[in-house]
Structure formats: C-alpha cells, structure tokens
Input
Amino acid sequence: MPELTHRGRMLVLAICCMSLLIVSLDVTVLNVALPAMRQDLDASVSGMQWTIDAYTLVLASLLMLAGSTADRIGRRKVFMAGLVLFTAGSALCSLASSLDALIVFRMVQAVGGSMLNPVAMSIITNTFTDPRERARAIGVWGGVVGVSMAAGPLVGGVLVDSVGWRSIFWINLPVGLAALLLTWRFVPESRAPRARRPDPVGQLLVVALLGALTYAIIEAPQKGWTSPEILLFAAVAAGALAGLVLYEPRRTDPLIDVRFFHSAPFSGATVIAVSAFAALGGFLFVTTLYLQDVRGLSALDAGLHMLPMAVMVCVLPPLSGRIVATRGPRMPLLVAGIGMAVGGLMFAAFDAETGTATMFTAYVVFGVGFGAVNAPITNTAVSGMPRAQAGVAAAVASTSRQIGQTLGVAVIGAVLAAGTSAAHTSDGGIPAAGFVAASRPAWWIITGCGVCVLLVGLVSSGRWALATARRTAERLEGDAAAPAPPGGARERPSSARARG
Output
C-alpha cells in the first residue's frame, strides 16, 4: 500500500467504520422488531431465533474464507463486492413476504457482511502501521461496534413504531451505497505478499460444525434433546469438529491456521470474544422479550429502556482503546469481565428486572463491561501477527464474535423456551413472575460468560502470555519469509495502486 497522509488514513478508517456500522447494527436492530415481525409473518419463537441466527451463522461460517480470499485477490475488491451484496440483501429483506423468504434474504445479507468486517480490519491494520496509532484506530473501530450493538434496539424501536419493521432494512441502503462509492474513490488496493490457496474442505467442515450445532440447540426444546434428529445433528457437529482438528494442521495454507493459537493472547482474545458476544446476544434476547412481551412496552419504549446500556457501550470503547494503546489490554479486560459478570449477577441473584432503578443500574454496569471489551479483543488479535496475514487473523476475531452471538441467542433461547413453556397465561402472555423465574438460568449463563472474560483476561495478558505472542510472531514471520513449497501458493507482490 502507498504511504497515506494522516487525513487519508482517517478517511480510510471512516469508510471502514461505515461498513462495520451497518453490519453490526443489523445484528441487534432486529431484536426489538421481533414481536412485530412475529405477528405480521405468523412466526413461532424458534422462527424468530432463526431470523437472528441465520444471519450470524452465515457470517461466522464465511468470515475466515472472506479474510483469506481478500488477502489473496485484493482487499478493496472483496470489500466492494461485500458492500454490493449486503446492500442488495437488505433491499430484499424489506420486501420479504414470508418468514422463509426473510431468512433466505438475511443469509444473502450475511454473505455480503462476511466480506466486510474482517477485510475492513485488515485494511485498517495495513493502513495504520504505527502500533499506538493502530491501537487508537481500533479503539474508534470498537466504538462503532459499541454504537451499533447498543443503539440497535433504540433505532429499531423508532423505526418499527413509526414506519414498520421493514424500515429497519432501509437504513442500510444509503450507507451501503455511500461506502461503496467512497471505497472505489479513496481506498487503495492491497494484497498479502504470498497468496493463500483455497481450502474448500476446511470451509465445508466449518459450515457443517456451526450449522449443525446451532440447529441442534435451537430445535432441541421443541423436538427433544434425545430425539434422533437432534442426536444426528449433534453427531454431525462433533464429526466436523474432529475433522477440522485432524485435517487443518496438515495443510500448507489452512483455512484456520492453528499456529495462531500458539499465542496465548490470541487464543485468549478468541475465547473472550465468544464469551462476551454470547453474553450480549443473550442479554438483548432476554431483555427484549421481557420488556415487550411481559411488561407490554412498545418497541420504542423498549429501546429507550435499554438506552443506559447503549450510552455506556458508546462511551467506553474509545477510552478503552486509548488505555490499550498506552498501558496494554489487561485493565480493559478486567473491567469488561467484572462489568458483565456483575450486570448478569444482578438479574440472576437479585431479580433486577423487578425494579426499574435496579434494572437500569444493571444495564449501566453491563454496558460498562461490554463497552470495554472490543478494543482489547481486536488489538490483541492482530497485534504481533504478520501484516501479510492480517485478514485471516482479523477474520478469526470477527468469527469468534459471530459464533458467540449465534450461540448466545441459541442457548439462551433454548433455556427460555424450556422455562416458559408452562408459564403462559390463557391469553398467550407470560406473567412477570413466571418469566423472571424462567430466565434466571439464562442470567446465570450470562454471568458465567462475564467471569470467563475476567479469568481469561487475567491469564492471557501476563508476561508468560506476551512471551508466547512474541515467539508465535517470530515463527510466523519466518514461515512467511520462506519460499513456497513446490506446488504451493505463488509469491505475489502487493498492489499499491489507489484511485484519486
């Protein structure tokens, strides 16, 4: 890539953040629209779970493929293709006439979205080469994640109450088109110095693992955990996992480079991402159902009730990014773990939802925790890794987020479905006391995710962990400098031509 001016780098960061905004917003904006969509499309609760998980599942399955493909054929090229697909998928979602059509169009959206986040992070990593400047840029990136994740319920509430649930997809159209034009004009093309060969077997194994696991979790409460169908899908997931463990280390250019996980901070960032986003996915799912189905609030009122969390998640990421840049990731990770654990514990042990003041306090505490977690996750995932493989490293971090989000909705939805099946009233509603009791196990799971962030953050940010990161980086740099094996991927110089 050519050396850009400070203004040029800020413009590239802004363009990348535009793509992140619409992709991440789409994950959460749908939550408050679920009751309206369920009524309009005559869908079941599990059907509503699929409108969320079909999107995050496809994202999780394809992010690593998109990252390695962008490193191979050009990051700007893949990024622009992703913007086109995501924008087109959003338009199709707004026209869906049935639940099945909506789920399919959400998957089209996700295919495009999978080409955006990891590729954008790779572009940022290759644009901001100074470690401190890169950490600040990632802090801004994390701020956009926070804004989109937390503001989704509020934005969705306004749109659903004023225009209708289909309008939540319209907001992607102007942002997507603007990002496409700005990318074509200002973002320089770049590739990895050595092209990576495709790994179709690894890709199929990832799709089989995530798809089968998610299906088994979502459908088990209705069909039975020991039903032949659920056991079959569980066996497929286990077989796909075993296949990945045995097959990927034997490839020269694997889809999942297990050498990355020799770095304790990188492995820790992966576990923390899954835990944190599982907690967020479960938090939003439970809260939205409680506020609208139990308290009877409108979509807008439900979004306003979650505003305290949204404010914290908006404010904390830039501050967290600055702390990571100056003092490292340890302190933000500890704040994140404590905040999410305490926020979940207030619901699990003290029934925080039964009092407005305690509920808002829990929202603030959880928001502080989640707001602090994104910057250290992203910075740890890409720091120390060879810039040539930035797309793959960033894709693993993004995949971990989406896997966490998918599993959070699937597991929490299954726990709630089991707990509330006997709590419905004669008119189909759920009494507040029944919902609080049924959701308590879900809140304990969310609390456990926060504890996991805390403990893994402690272990993965110490001296021993940093030493493993240095050794891993040196090993990867040495392998990258070595000539490709016979029949392997060819060396290819990085393209540095920019428009304008």
